Amino acid sequence: MSGSALRLAFGLGLLFAGGCAAEVVDLSGVWRLNLEKSRWGKVPKPVSIVVTIEHREPAIHYSGKMIYVGGEETRDFEFAGTIDGKEYPAARTFGDGKVVVKRENDTAISSEFRSNDGRWEEKTRTTVTRDRKVMRRMIERKGPDEELAWMEYYEKQ
């Protein structure tokens, strides 16, 4: 094979490989927690969590409602930011802080939250199946008197 034919073949191979690269899975939609498939560890199990996500890579916005035992105690939550590895202000029930959200691969993102007072840290890893039917969130939280870990299993509605 001549040098120019070899370069052409190599260039076409790169083009083909780039075209076959997996696209980032879109997380948009309404997701409902499956309590039975989730793992709670020492975390009090909620009655229900429903999350609505608007995702236009790299921008992400989610909001949701968590309902606890008896249905009388609820907690709303929301976040808007970008999956870009930069810090964004965020609030948790235990305080305000900053969060960094990064893309790990085409089906997974991770985030790290640190409270402004340095007492709390929360790490999450969110993955979604390629068919966009299941989303899993692995969460680890460390605070002054506790270390918790749990997995939330969501199904697309």
Provide a descriptive summary of the structure in words:
- The chain is globular and about 40 Å long.
- About 11% of the residues have low confidence.
- It has a single domain, classed as Lipocalin (Beta Barrel), CATH 2.40.128.
- The termini are far apart.
- The protein has 157 residues and is mainly β.
- The chain has a ten-stranded antiparallel beta sheet, with no helix packed on it.
- Helices cover 11% and strands 54% of the residues.
- It is built from one helix and ten strands; from the N terminus they run H-E-E-E-E-E-E-E-E-E-E.
Show the helix and strand layout.
Layout lengths: L2 H18 L8 E5 L14 E9 L2 E9 L6 E9 L4 E6 L2 E11 L2 E8 L5 E8 L5 E9 L4 E10 L1
Antiparallel strand pairs: 1-2, 1-10, 2-3, 3-4, 5-6, 6-7, 7-8, 8-9, 9-10
Helical fraction: 10-25%
The termini sit apart by: 54 Å
- According to CATH, what is the topology? Lipocalin
| Helix and strand sequence | HEEEEEEEEEE
Give a short summary of the structure:
With 157 residues, this protein is mainly beta. It is built from one helix and ten strands; from the N terminus they run H-E-E-E-E-E-E-E-E-E-E.
Key phrases:
11% helix; 157 residues; 10-stranded antiparallel β-sheet; Lipocalin; 10 strands; mainly beta; 1 helix
